[in-house]
Description:
Blueprint: E1 10-13, H1 19-30, E2 34-39, H2 43-55, E3 60-64, H3 70-83, E4 87-92, H4 108-133, E5 142-147, H5 151-154, H6 161-180, E6 186-193, H7 200-203, H8 209-213, H9 225-236, E7 247-250
Parallel strand pairs: 1-2, 1-4, 2-3, 4-5, 5-6, 6-7
Helix pairs in contact: 1-2, 1-9, 3-4, 4-6
Amino acid sequence: MTEKRRSARTVLVTGGGRGIGAATSLLCAQNGWAVAVNYTSGVAAAEAIVAQIRAAGGTALAVQADVSDEARVLAMFATIERELPPLGALVNNAGVVDVQARVDVMSLPRLQRMFAINVFGSFLCAREAVKRLSTKHGGRGGAIVNLSSAASRIGSPGQYVDYAAAKGAIDVFTMGLAKEVALEGIRVNAVRPGIIETEIHASGGLPDRAKQMAPLVPMQRAGSAEEVAQAIYWLMSDASSYTTGSVVDVTGGR
C-alpha cells in the first residue's frame, strides 16, 4: 500500500511552522498525509504553511500549543482528533536554544525552559501519541520521529551544553520508548541534524552560525531543512518498516 493510499491519517508536526518543521509539514502533505501544524506563537508562519498545503489540495490545520504546557498539549490532541483524520504519526520537532554561554553562568530559569520544551514537551506529545497509536490502546500503530541534534554527541562546549544535554536525553528517550512499544505497532526513531540553515540560529543570537560553521563539516556546507525533512519522512513512512530505536545523523559527515 502506498503512502498516498494510507493518507486518511494525520501527522502532527510540533514546531511545524518554520525551519525543519515547515519543510517536514510540506513533504508529508505532498505524500498524502493530513498535517497538524503546531506552533507556539508564530501563528502567521503556521497559517502560511497550512495555506500552502491547502492550495495544493492537501488537508492541514494550524494548532496552537506550548508543548511544555500539559493542558495545552491535551487540548491540541483533542482538536486534532475532532478536526482531522486519525493520528498516524508524530514528529517531535519543537525545540529551543538560548544565547551561547558557559555552564558556570547558566541560570535556573534558562535550564528549566531548555528542558521543559526540548525534553518534557517531547515526552508529553509522545505520551499522547502512544495512547492513540498503540494497538494496546485500540490504535492502528504508527510512527514517532524525535528531533535530536549532533550536539548530543559533540557537547557544544562554550555555547549550548544545556541544549546538547537536552538532546542527549532525546537520544535515550528514543531508544527506550522504541523498545517499550515495539510490539504495539509503533516505531520510534530520531533524526540528529548537524549544521542546518534555519531560523533557530538567530534565536540563539548567532544568525550567521551555519555559514561560520560550514568549514568544520566534511562536506564543506550547511545542510537544508528539506534534507532533514527527507530523513524524517523516511523514518515515519513504510519504507523504514524494520527500523526502530535508531538515531539517524544528517550532518554532512560531521
